[in-house]
Amino acid sequence: MKDYLAGLNEPQREAVTHIDGPLMIIAGAGSGKTRVLTYRIAYLIEKGVDPFNILALTFTNKAAEEMRHRIEKVIGPEAKNLWMGTFHSVFSKILRFDGHKLGYTSNFTIYDTDDSKSLLRSIIKEMGLDDKAYKPNYVLNRISAAKNNLISWQMYNENPSFAAEDIAAQMPELGRIYKTYALRCFSANAMDFDDLLFNTNVLFRDHLDVLNKYQHKFRHVMVDEFQDTNISQYLITRKLAAVSQNICVVGDDAQSIYAFRGANIQNILNFKKDYPDLKVVKLEQNYRSTKNIVNAANSVIAKNKAQLEKNIFSDNEEGEKIEVIRAMSDNEEGRLIAHEIFEGRLRGLKNSDFAILYRTNAQSRAFEEALRKIDIPYRIIGGLSFYQRKEIKDILAYLRFTVNQQDEEAFKRIINTPKRGIGDTSVAKIIVLASEHQTSIWNIVSNIQFYMEGRTANAVAGFADLIKSYTVMMEEGKDAHTLAMHVAKTSGLLHELYMDKTVEGVARHENVQELLNSIRSFVDNDENEDKSLSSFLQTVSLLTTADEDDDGDAEKVTLMTIHGAKGLEFKHVFVVGLEENLFPSQMMLKSRDDLEEERRLFYVAITRAEKQLTLSYAQQRYTWGKLTYCEPSRFLEEIDSRYLRFGDKGIPQTFEPSFAPKKQATRPVVIGEPVKRASANALKPVQPPVQAHVPSADFEPSDTSKLKVGDKVEHQKFGFGEVKKLEAFSGSTKAHILFEREGEKTLLLSFAKLRIL
DNA sequence: CACGTGTCCATTTTT
DNA sequence: TGGACACGTG
Questions:
Q1: Looking at its record, which EC class is this enzyme (predicted)?
Q2: How far, in Å, is the CA of A288 from the C1' of nucleotide B5?
Q3: Domain boundary pick from A646, A678, A697
């Protein structure tokens, strides 16, 4: 027996050594799942399976990379030949090879959520529909749900029950929108995230030769985080494994937290029906957490009805009880927790031993401020990702358009960025021309002299020449980095950022440099066999925030959403914002009415902790600029109180359910506040007319990044004033300035026409 | 056409 | 709170 098998417990070993036929591993939290998966692959290879014939689907690219490295340690460099990655990345590669059978070129663009929404917004506008009734977000979710259930736009429009639902939801045109959206994506040679899976299904359904090829290539299929797969993904794996029957799925129904994205817990509950001779292995021993934490988690999840029977236990020490903290406000919650981390470090813990987990990204602010104030380094995972920043998207849009001139969304982004005098009217005209002449936008743009003349036409022609020069370079076979570098310089984007000396301008310039660096390392990385721009772009659009080069080794406290924490563990975990309507989220309860999923989310959060767990909530919190009273989350009461201890921090604890004024959760009455808006306007005292300020003759705005509190300034329009306060927000700076005539104004520095006197 | 200003509105999680 | 959009002015 191999030595690595020696360290495994009985069920773990069973899972590792089961090679032929379907296998389902129910892996409880902290039960050594990754270890089992890694060893199983190593074992397969040692038993003579070629790594080329193994497909392992993971939830994030990072998880795949990590597993590949671990396997490499056991079996050596052969591990490189494994097919590993997320569903989206693996199947985008397959579509790159074989997508031409569906009418896509290998250079197809992958639309991210922003692209999809923007396209939907245009479609809704073009159809003359009210964009208040048809919210792009909702429409996209609906289309996405359809695709994830393999309902094409044709099927959607043929099925009267969908039409009935849409009419009931006051959106009778959804079917038409779906159709237009699908056709527009197709003619843009673009796929959205759901298309990658949907089209793979279509490819395997309609092109049996292709299916056959991959069925024989992937003799062994493994799926990690199986509880989070949707129907579309499940069908792909089932088809791939139909011949060999060698399918191994690993998951935990108690940790299914992506139902909102179409994940179907039935996949795991019904798996046995699809594979009658399925072997099921349960990994029930938790090696991660203390008894206390495991028991508390069990007491919570026991409230859920839909689940597979299992008994998660721990042989670790009893451990400390779970601390509950009540704070006055969100800011105090931040302070208390920052303080506790500080104390924890005095007891010998490192920054990286701590994680603060919250339900929504917006909650991070209070913790960031508190940690910064006492100089505790932290890193935030998630939130606005690097690749969603404007300056990055701009460069990427140029690259996308170079690779694929049908990419409508990229076109809209760059045609007038940086400003080259082609305004909205001209762009609209071009789009109209394209549809009048039944041709592509690029066709019009690249032959603009036949359609328009004058200043704008020249500008458009200049743009077309620019893109053509890029295309030529690409066809010469220049690698992604050379090309991107050239594009950044000659498009004017880099120059524009370089000229911008404001704080945020400098930061943006650095971001672009960082993007260029990352393209270079993509090109230099020998593991990427395809170094083309097109290949880089497809890789990049499937990166998640969890994949971004984290300073994993950095000595920092981790802040992230619970969703982002899946698969991770920390010595001391803080689960914060445990307030009714926030966690469980009222959004979730309203739209899907799925308390059980929220509870599983809570379960996931709890089970990230190894030694210590702290739960906290605030009595008051600012939401959307308004102060709201909060009640403690029902989840706090669902934990068996034997495992709890009320913190000595914050306000002394009791659980009287409500300390807030009765039934006015959202809006305390303010005495004297006018009731209606109209009367508010009527009551407004008449302002004495303010004389317009005539700027000094030589008005020349100064470098506002040097602005300090107390500076006397002149504004082009508001006149003279004094800086009262400077405030940082989302990467830039705001100034509160008291103007002599106008009173106090808040200005965004980058836009201020200011002169420092 | 570019820019500044005012108004409205939405706020969950992510491949 | 702040981002997206509509409108008016230069």
A1: isomerase
A2: 56
A3: A646
Q: Which of A491, A462, A486 is nearest to A476 (CA)?
A: A486
Whether A27 has a binding-site annotation, put simply, is yes
Greater pLDDT, A269 or A31: A31
A159 with A116, same domain: the answer is yes
Q: Which of A478, A511, A527 marks a domain boundary?
A: A527
CB of residue A486 closer than 7 A to nucleic acid strand C? no
Measured from the CB, is A48 under 7 Å from any atom of strand C? no
Q: What is the mean pLDDT of residues A47-55?
A: 93
In a domain? residue A179: yes
The residue range of the domain holding A497 is: 403-527
State which residues between 141 and 200 of chain A bring their CB within 7 Å of strand B. Answer: 193-194
CB of A730 lies under 7 Å from some atom of strand C: yes
- Do A215 and A137 reside in the same domain of the chain? no
Q: Are A259 and A594 in contact (CB under 8 A)?
A: yes
Full-model pTM? 0.82
- CATH number of the domain within which A424 lies: 1.10.486.10
Which of A538, A604, A462 is closest to A105 using CA atoms?
A538
Amino acid code (one letter) for A293 = I
User: Six-digit token pair at A402?
Assistant: 């170079």
Query: Residues 375-394 of A near strand B (Cβ < 7 Å)?
Result: 382
Q: Among A213-222, A522-531, A641-650, A691-700, whose mean pLDDT is lowest? A: A691-700
A18: which 2 tokens?
């089961």
Chain B bases under 7 Å from protein CB? Answer: 1-5, 9-15
CATH code, domain carrying A130: 1.10.10
Ramachandran angles phi, psi of A609, nearest 5°: -85, 135
Q: Which among A572, A575, A629, A628 is positioned nearest to A599, based on CA atoms?
A: A575
Euclidean distance between CA atoms A290 and A321, whole angstroms:
10
Give residue A13's pLDDT.
93
Q: How many other CB atoms are found less than 10 A from the CB of residue A757?
A: 12
Whether the predicted pLDDT of A705 surpasses 90 = no
**Are residue A89 and residue A152 in the same domain, yes or no?**
no
Residues A717 and A592 in one domain: no
CB-based contacts of A138, cutoff 8 Å, min separation 6:
A171
